[in-house]
Amino acid sequence: MPDYANPLLSSCINDTFFADILEQAADGIIIIDDKNRIVFFNSAAEHLWGYPASTVLGNDVNTLLPLEHRDHHSGYIAHNRQTGSHRIVNTSREVTFVRSNGDYVAADLSLSTALLGPEQKRYYMAFIKGVTEEVHRLKLLELQSQVFTSLTGYTTIQDVADMLCSKVEKLVPNSIAALLSVTVHGSISILSAKNLPANTVKQLTSIVLTPSDMKDLRAHPHHAYAVVWPNKQSQESNTDLHDCWASAICNASGELLGIFVLFSCNKDKITDWPQKIVTGCVPSCASIIEHERTRYRISQYNNIDPLTGLLNRSALTTRLKQMAAQNGQAPFAILMLDVDLLQDVNNVMGYNSGDILLQTVARRIASLCRTQHLVARLGSDDFVVVMPDADRTKSCKLAHDLNCIAREPIEVKGRDLVASLSIGISLYPDDGTEIEEILGASEIAMRQAKKQARGGFRFFGKGGNSNVRERLIIGSALREALHRKELYLVYQPQICALTGTLCGVEALSRWQHPSLGLIPPSTFIPIAEETGQIEAIGLWSLEKSCAQIRQWEQDNVYVPIVSVNMSAVHFCSMELPEQILSMLHKYSVDPQRLTIEITESVAMRQDPETASNLNAIRDMGVGLSMDDFGTGFSSLSRLAQLPLTEIKIDRSFIENFENNISSLVVAEAAISIGKRLGIKVVTEGVEQKAQETKLQELGCDILQGYFYSKPLRAEEIPLWLEACPTRQASRG
């Protein structure tokens, strides 16, 4: 470069004493003239930048700036000189610059300006204090705090890992960070590496660490460099990456969790101070990986059956939905297995023995199926095996093999037990495309196998299953019917045979489905009983009826009694009397205006729960009616012990009793029994005048049927009474 005379030192500072002070200052000092040329560069500045003053003096100050700032710096200074706006002058700020060897250095910059010389030219003087170590230490502490704060919130593990890598990339400019997780088997997965080239990602994820590698990384974390950067020339030729710094990540107990790596995009080799950044990030990385593993274990716990270690029903359903979504219509078979022997083992040998049996069967199923199939336990003694790409032939073979391994003796507390499996098989998509539907199909087939071929298997849709699909569809829709308010009540009037006035109504459930239309009770009530939904429907009917009694009262419509049907399921619960009493109180209904109708099978039960419930209902003043009397096997001695207020003769006995002497005799006997027991007799199915006349002659108390009215909606009852005022009941 040409000789350069320092105008500042020759003309503005004649006393070399002050120049020597600036030269020997501990902080770097740089002075530039009005042309942005460096006119002073002391020894501390030489040390910071790694350049001797002789190669710097006279050059534009841009040569000392990082590349990303050089294009804009001259414009900033020109604006300052022209406007006098000193936004960064007389302030302190953190800057990063590049040393001669390519290292990035962090420093505090203080900038001053002055007009000097006869021509009052503006000079700038910068004081630079290197603070790389301290800045990095503080930023690492701040980063660690941010990581811990994020982990305690609702931020995803992916977001926390991405945040850490992004922050580190800012600490070390022109770098790419990656957080890798190492499994106990030595395989590597990437938690975060948003900016990493695809071929490098592929290379990293293909690495499998040997036990020796993992032991070496636990003892010497910095050996991770050799793992992720085994061949420097090969790496450089495939990417824009030129070097890296890495460290193994271990937890407090010494377990290898992962590797944190920082790749350099600088072509020039720089010193290893970024390695200190990587090492300083290890505690934060360990926290992220351990938190991710904890979440995974919790997720696994929620998805795993604790007794057998197999998938539970929730996890199975999720996997099946994923299979259906990913593979479109790719077939698979669902085999539902029931352990035939379990209940006997529980009863005779205790539940601990039953658990041993289930665990042994589960291990055998899992061992046979291995990784090719999904295996789950749905609960109790039911297991499921999902066989991908299966047809009837493959399913038959698997069912046969499963039963073979199940029949091998199982030793439980010194006894050799021989179990068998009843297996139901459904095929996707042949037997349905909805997951709950296809699972239900396999369960129905399993129940059929248990009844007809215990220890064998049955396919869904064969051998008497022609109506099962319809039951599945209706059963599934029924679950939502109450929530969607598709069910409603109608009320069929009951007439006093002696006076012809209204003495009550029977509440009857109806279901109007938006697409299936009106579904008759004869269809959905049995399905509700099979699927365990009848209890909810019965309680809903009870509440709606009580509410309707109250509403009629407010509308000045008098309906003496409302009869509500309750199923056998309700009488298994000791809460039933309290539920009825709660409804009566809620709607301020007199107990005598409510009658509970029960089936003959319930009335004949002699278990203590049923007897207690029946007596409790009568004790509160609610009526009890036995429906469909005569269709079962009623015991007269049992009938005399029941707290009934009425019996209802089934419609089948009066359909043709004027021409059928047997039906007439039964009807007459039933009425006579009621009279002798002091309870009322109701006859259903009255459709003709002749039937009414005959029943009146026999002394029947209450008549019900289409001869008087079809079942009516609640708002139609007042209109029906107005149309025939003689039906009006008197309050008394």
TrEMBL record:
Domain (GGDEF): residue spans on this chain: 330-462
Stretches assigned to the PAS domain: 14-71
All copies of domain EAL, residue ranges: 471-725
InterPro entries given in the database record: Biofilm_reg_signaling, Diguanyl_cyclase/Pdiesterase, EAL_dom, EAL_sf, GGDEF_dom, Nucleotide_cyclase, PAS, PAS-like_dom_sf
GO biological process: regulation of DNA-templated transcription
Gene3D superfamilies on file: 3.30.70.270, EAL domain, PAS domain
Top-level taxon of origin: Bacteria
Name of the protein: C-di-GMP phosphodiesterase
Organism annotation: Acetobacter okinawensis
